[in-house]
Amino acid sequence: MKRSYSMFVCMAVLLALVEGCRSMRDRSPTFDVVGSYFPAWMACIIGGILLTLVTRQLLIGFKLNTHLYAAPVVYVCMTALFTMAVWLAFFKG
User: Fold this and answer.
1) Is residue 91 part of a domain?
2) Inside any domain, residue 75
3) Which of 11, 36, 69, 88 fits a 20 to 30 Å CA distance from 28?
């Protein structure tokens, strides 16, 4: 009896935590693109990747890419930084 009660409590807590993509305004983080809803996180990732590619080209142009010893790590971190910056700039308001 005690085990089933603790299982019930655990399930109730888990269900409360996985509520979904509801925000304070009761809508998911999507926007309309040509009549179809597009997830905002995907747009942010695409923006972060594009900004990283532009930054990489600038670093190559200024010949600063030779000073990057762990270039893959730097570019992955740059992508994460730009992705979060795009989210804050356009979707967090």
Assistant:
1) yes
2) yes
3) 11
